[in-house]
Specification:
alpha/beta, Ribose 5-phosphate Isomerase B, Chain: A, five-stranded parallel β-sheet, globular, binds ribulose-5-phosphate
Length: 161
């Protein structure tokens, strides 16, 4: 699978080690930065680039997922979700990693590098990558509502309050 990855200064060390893990597992990793440590760098552009590339590859039929990291993962998730078509989930245990795929068909995982050990972060990412979307009708319906809202501001053809 192709994995698009991005972080900021708070996750750089993590990102480098996780990229090694992913490459050893046979994935193609595309690093969206940062390329060097800058304690005052800003996560939005890195994370938006990773999410955009993930959405673009999926639209082209390429099997791909995105990973974004930061100190908490909150801002990184918010940034990724600004990209149309991105469904970024902030994951904090194996259950939320699996549910992000099963129920939400999340295409980007966000993780707080200051919240977990490297071993746990790798466990969360591996669980996320391995889990398929359930494809169940209720989840398909809810995801379609989000996509419709993103595209038109409507849900099921109606304005919402
Ligand atoms: O997690 C993050 C955003 O949600 C950032 O990584 C975090 O805010 C960076 O903090 P600082 O600039 O104090 O190192």
């Amino acid at each position: 699978m192709r994995i698009h990855i991005a972080t900021d200064h708070a996750g750089l060390d993590f990102s480098e080690q996780i990229q090694t893990h992913l490459r050893e597992a046979g994935h193609e990793v595309v690093d969206h930065g940062p390329q060097s440590y800058d304690p005052v760098d800003d996560y939005p552009s890195f994370c938006i680039n990773a999410a955009s590339a993930t959405v673009r590859d999926q639209a082209a039929g390429i099997q791909t997922l995105g990973i974004v990291f930061g100190g908490s993962g909150n801002g990184e998730q918010i940034a990724a979700n600004k990209v149309r078509g991105a469904r970024a989930a902030l994951v904090w245990n194996v259950d939320t990693a699996k549910l992000a795929r099963q129920h939400n068909d999340a295409n980007v995982i966000s993780i707080g590098a200051r919240q977990h050990s490297l071993e746990v972060a790798i466990e969360l990412i591996d669980a996320f990558i391995a889990e398929p979307f359930s494809g169940e009708e209720r989840h398909v319906r809810r995801i379609a509502q989000l996509a419709e809202y993103e595209a038109t501001g409507l849900i099921a053809g109606r304005e919402i309050d």
